[in-house]
Design a protein that fits this description.
The protein is an all-alpha fold and 340 residues long. It has 14 helices and 2 strands, in the order H-H-H-H-H-H-H-H-H-H-H-H-H-E-E-H.
Length: 340
Amino acid sequence: MITELYSNSIYMLLTILLFALAFDLLIGEFPAKIHPVVWIGNIISFFKKYLIKYDNKISGLIVSICVIAVSSLIVLVPMLLIKHFMYLNDGMICLFKLVALLLLSSTFSVKLLIDSARDVERDLKNNNLNKARQAVSYLVSRKTSELNKEHVISAVIETLTENIPDSYVSTIFYYSIVGIIAFLLGFNDFTVVILAVLAALIHRVVDTMDSMLGYKTDELYNIGFVPAHLDDILNYIPARISGFLIIISAAFLALNWRGAYYIMQRDARNCDSPNSGYTMATVAGALNIQLIKKDTYILGDDNKDITKDDISKAVSLSKITINLFTIVIIFLLSLIYVIL
């Protein structure tokens, strides 16, 4: 009976998620040498090297297929190998779950996202604008060496809130949805978990391809066309879920939730990306500030001066949004576990 409970797929999906999140919050990122996302980056670089010379959109499609296929082995090889020996003893179930939670944890980065924003906030509180500019340069693609204090604050709030879906919500969305679908289709318990973790990894692969290739430069436009649009498709629903959860979070924090909703509706489409504005604009409305990327977009109204304290408020909004989404997923998985 204990083994049956411990191996139930919905139970495993739930516990793996909780332990993976705890691992990320307490320990953070894997060392670079063993980090699956670093491996994924190397795989992308390998295929880019050989296919970029063709300079057409088909090369981007081939890169996407090859990178997803090869990167999937990061999940499939260890988890299928352990599954093969599952008959030996119950201890193999523990090993299976451990590997699953470690792999899942590597596909999102809540601690890194929050800590990066806090680092910039600390530099600004110490009146070290140059150090803050340098810290922001690791987070955004724009040139930061000449940004003033207000633009540095705007940049860090933008990247923090834009990455709420990319760094967590989208990954867990696909982990949960694919896991539930696989369960309802009657797959073996352990196969359900493998497919769920694989879905999370594939989202991270697509997101990494977009961050490496998805730029409208002469060199990358063609090869990055498919990865960029694939990333847009995968983040479409999670970005909008995140936007509405930010509105709820703003209400919890007694911020301007009505303004958050209004600005999301008005300005979310001001960005080139069809998704990033749904979190950035909503936070701008909640904080009554403008987020500005020169010659690219303006989000929100200039109701007050943007200050370093707004970084802390944006962090709080991000944390509550992530917590709310986690609670929704836990409730959904628990409901299915109880009913089915």
